[in-house]
Design a protein that fits this description.
The protein is of the alpha/beta class. The protein is built from 19 helices and 15 strands. Helix 6 (about 220-230) links the parallel strand 7 (about 205) and strand 8. Bound molecules: 4-O-methyl-alpha-D-glucopyranuronic acid. 4-O-methyl-alpha-D-glucopyranuronic acid binds near residues 162 and 209.
Length: about 675
């Protein structure tokens, strides 16, 4: 009975596979006509039961898979896989063994084995000359690099999703039925859980960091309990974002001052209530004193005071507080926004409780198409840290543009070593739309986030290949073209939106289209595009040097500080981030800055035009009609948007450069 709904979801998957609305993501159904035999401690836990069921239904390369639990091996959440060739006489078959020291390890090992099968990773064993019977042919051992591999959902209790572009909240907050979830919701959330488990995600924050105090009231906590029960067998822990002012907002206390004993007591009682419902609850994610959210600063207290008070409430139950460093405009008004996280938090290094983790966005500003890494990762030596990436493409064309984000994340990970972090969070791009993510290719970003969270050494190329193999199953030539498009798409987007280190020149609020001239005295300066690009008749860009600018370069470790400080050594991709550059400055290409800017914008548009014509003219025979049509329509829109970006930015900047816009030529595609 326990797995009835699980089977039901497989059944539905089988029935709907033909239409392929993308609901089953990269786990599209590979059904085995003869379910294989899975042996091992299958009844030891529901998690192992799921691993076994996945293999039974989807492993097609041999008659048997063995699961083995050996706690002595100390593999944590990892696994050891061995695949042997058997039956060397006729067509070779494979016999696989997965050994782990935890149920989670067996689950992850099962998904890895299926991934190997579905991406052709074991094909050579099936085609190679038969080896001696029983010889071990394929062996791999893996453990995740980070303990915490987490999604952050910015889902509101009214059902909307902040910066969500794929429909409403997947949690259906309005359907509160005590501890029950509707069958339809169970079905959808089972697909969600399965998808996350397949890529190693082991934690999820259910609600927006701009949190409603109501999330901590009983009816919502009971719903959270029901969700946690559904996710638990998939080894996914539930966390909640909390509003720092909750006890006051709910009328339980007259203040939310973290040093007030009544307030601390309220949080301790609340923690006890939560853990009674959800014994493995992960903890709280907190956005405090940021963009209008309440926080300890409202009472003259520090972030450390606030975080420690919450940490103290969670400590007896093993929970953590994840405190965000995304704060600006509160205590350091007037300071360059990109410097404020370090200014605010560095003095608190070492003052936070040991169950507090500081979570920072990859760049020092706000998920721009390209940012240099956030220096805070190098500045906190006594505070555990997590990185925050954004899967939902708030500033990268949302769910309308094909932009594969793994290359951007790899750029960040090339500066911030995995050992500097205890985990990584991704702001989810999921919604209640059929295919979860809106754009069929946006699914690749969810997939890539999970794979990199498991192993940040994986290459963007391999992840793209894995995803496309599991999602589309194309002939080699088309697969290569598709991967090429994915891998070049981030640079392309940067080219047509904000090349050479430009940033935040988006339309106010919705962050979709361009508004380089955006300025409104009613808004904080840090929300206005003109604050960031600083175009004038001399040049373009934000001077962040120590010598003449805001001094943000000094927050970087010496090697990078020196590199970024000098115009000549600053990588061109970050040039206008760190320097105000003369329009006549000679770039590496030999072009002037103005010519180079035109070149990048033209190149970005030309690339999208190529993507669109390739998809439109060549790909129809290889993709099911529904997804082909969807992508075709979206690429047409992306091309129009890219042209709009180019035209509006170049028109605007040409007024300062006082140079004619260089029109596209046939040579503008980036080499
Ligand atoms: C959840 C940016 C976004 C906001 C978001 C904020 C944050 O400012 O535009 O929607 O709020 O980042 O990360 O807290």
């Amino acid at each position: 009975m326990k797995y009835v709904l699980f089977y039901l979801s497989f059944l539905l998957c089988a029935v709907t596979a033909k239409a392929n609305n993308g609901e089953h993501l990269w786990l599209d159904c590979h059904w085995s006509a003869n379910p294989c035999q899975v042996v091992g401690p299958l009844k030891a836990s529901p998690t192992i039961g799921i691993a076994a069921e996945e293999l039974r239904q989807h492993w097609t390369l041999g008659p048997q898979v063995r699961l083995s639990l050996r706690s002595m091996l100390q593999l944590g959440e990892g696994y050891h896989i061995t695949v042997r060739q058997i039956d060397s006489s006729k067509c070779p078959q494979l016999k696989a063994t997965i050994v782990a020291s935890s149920a989670a390890g067996l689950l992850y090992g099962a998904y890895q084995l299926l991934r190997l099968q579905n991406t052709g990773g074991l094909d050579s064993l099936l085609t190679s000359a038969p080896k001696d019977h029983g010889q071990s042919l394929f062996v791999m051992t893996e453990q995740p690099v980070w303990k915490l591999r987490m999604l952050n959902h910015w889902d509101n209790l009214d059902g909307s999703v902040e910066r969500g572009y794929a429909g409403n909240s997947i949690w259906k907050w309005k359907q509160i039925l005590g501890h029950e979830l509707t069958p339809q919701l169970r079905r959808r959330l089972t697909i969600y859980a399965r998808a996350n488990a397949s890529i190693g995600i082991n934690a999820t924050v259910l609600n927006n960091v701009n949190a409603s105090p109501l999330i901590l009231t009983r009816p919502y906590l009971e719903k959270v309990q029901a969700i946690a029960q559904l996710l638990r067998p998939y080894h996914i822990k539930v966390y909640l974002s909390v509003n720092f002012g909750t006890p006051k907002a709910l009328g339980a206390t007259s203040t939310a001052d973290p040093l007030c004993p009544d307030v601390a007591m309220w949080w301790q009682r609340k923690a006890k209530e939560i853990y009674a419902l959800i014994p493995d609850f992960g903890g709280f994610l907190v956005k405090a004193n940021s963009e209008g959210q309440p926080g300890p600063g409202d009472y003259g207290r520090s972030h450390a005071d606030g975080a420690n008070m919450l940490a103290n409430a969670l400590k007896p139950f093993g929970g953590s507080v994840i405190w965000r460093s995304f704060v600006y405009g509160a205590h350091h008004k007037g300071e360059d926004r990109v410097k404020q996280a370090v200014s605010e938090f560095e003095p608190m290094d070492g003052l936070m409780a040991d169950n507090v983790i500081l979570q920072s966005k990859n760049g020092p500003l706000d998920f721009q198409p390209r940012e240099p890494f956030a220096p805070i990762f190098y500045r906190m030596h006594h505070t555990p840290q997590m990185g925050e990436l954004q899967i939902t493409q708030e500033y990268l064309g949302q769910s309308k543009h094909l932009v594969y984000l793994a290359p951007m994340w790899k750029e960040f990970l090339s500066y911030v070593r995995p050992s500097m972090l205890v985990g990584i969070a991704g702001v989810a791009n999921t919604g209640d739309t059929d295919n979860w993510c809106g754009h069929p290719f946006s699914q690749a970003n969810w997939y890539a986030f999970g794979r990199l969270a498991w192993n940040p050494q994986l290459s963007a190329e391999n992840i793209a290949l894995e995803w496309s193999r599991q999602t589309f199953k194309l002939p080699t030539e088309q697969e290569q073209q598709l991967c090429h498009v994915m891998l070049s798409s981030h640079e392309t987007c940067t080219d047509y939106m904000m090349p050479l280190g430009l940033h935040h020149i988006f339309r106010f609020d919705h962050h979709y289209g361009p508004e380089p001239g955006g300025f409104n005295p009613k808004y904080p300066l840090e929300w206005c595009p003109t604050y960031y690009h600083r175009a004038d008749t001399l040049g373009l860009g934000f001077d962040r040097t120590v010598a003449t600018g805001s001094g943000a370069t000094a927050q970087y470790p010496p090697h990078y500080a020196a590199l970024y400080e000098q115009l000549d050594s600053c990588p061109e991709r970050y040039l206008l981030w760190f320097h105000h550059v003369a329009w006549t400055h000679r770039m590496l290409s030999g072009r002037t800055l103005w010519q180079e800017l035109c070149h990048h914008y033209n190149s970005g548009v030309a690339q999208v035009a190529q993507y669109r014509s390739w998809w439109h003219n060549d790909m129809h025979p290889y993709i099911d009609n529904m997804r082909w049509q969807q992508v075709d329509t979206l690429l047409t829109r992306q091309l129009a948007n890219a042209q709009e970006w180019r035209d509006s930015c170049l028109n605007y900047f040409s007024r300062f450069a006082r140079k004619p816009i260089i029109r596209p030529s046939t040579h503008t595609i980036r080499q």
